[in-house]
Design a protein that fits this description.
Number of domains: 2
Helix content: 25-40%
Low-confidence stretches: none
Order of helices and strands: HEHEHEHEHEHEEEHHEHH
Radius of gyration: 19 Å
Bound molecules: phosphoric acid mono(formamide)ester
CATH topology of the largest domain: Rossmann fold
Number of strands: 9
Shape: globular
CATH superfamily of the largest domain: Aspartate/ornithine carbamoyltransferase
Largest sheet: 5 strands, parallel
Amino acid sequence: MLSKKSILDADSLSLEDIKLILSNADSFLEISRRDVKKVPTLRGKTVINMFFEPSTRTRTSFEIAAKRLSADIINFSPLTSSLKKGESIIDTLKTILSMKVDLIVIRHSDSGTVKMVDRFVDIPVINAGDGKYQHPTQALLDLYTIKKRFGKFEGLKVDIVGDFLDSRVARSDMNLFEKMGMDVTIVSPTMFLPEDFSGMKVKHCIDDVIEDADIVYMLRMQFERQDRKFYPSVMEYNRFLTMNMDRLGKMKPGSIVMHPGPVNRGIEITDEVMDTSGELAEKIVIEEQVTFGVAVRMAILYLILG
Ligand code: CP
């Protein structure tokens, strides 16, 4: 069992909860590798996916996770719901609760909406990403990916690169990475840094960290959340922050490149790096992150509902 009913942010996850989720993910990864990828663990439970913002990985991952555990999962679609007729979110939630669902997975473009929903309902709520605030299950699957590659966290050098102002993934990852004893450096131009980052280790160019890094975590440019001109141009971004073949080749043996997806090719990571094969391809763990995401979400659903 986890210490709280809901997972709303990375900050409120205890070390014990994190370790419990990661250790349980191992057995659920094994199930995902079987020929018949289904166990009856959550038979009779009903999960509802409420995604008010587009998603491929997170929504599908929760759906597959629930189905592999034999839970029933409903994909609520805001665009074809009575929200379009003016029904409020609260009245929508009341309607859903009347149907006796057991858990809500929710993504919303407004920071704080998930907490508001959690206060209103008495069933568990999982934050699948809200505005610029948090994406805790992404951070948990990122931790699990690191655990699988390195077998430890303490002392690993992780450089998080990109737009911190708009990134919910950055906020969740930084919290969990530091909690696990990793050495975190932010690589970002000043214009992508919020004011409260003054106490952090900050670099402005990826070349300053690339040779020493164990993990280079590329953040996605949050174009949909930016209300300003793109940093100052793609050419400038490429010069200081993009992962290209030259930089990939400078990384030390065993080091990895992570990205939460979806990748803006040519901005955070070049086409050549994304499509590389051979020895250097081993460093790119973006697909592993997605695979491990299902196991981590199975573990979360099991620990909350099982
Ligand atoms: N990483 C992530 O949240 O991806 P989606 O937006 O596709 O869910």
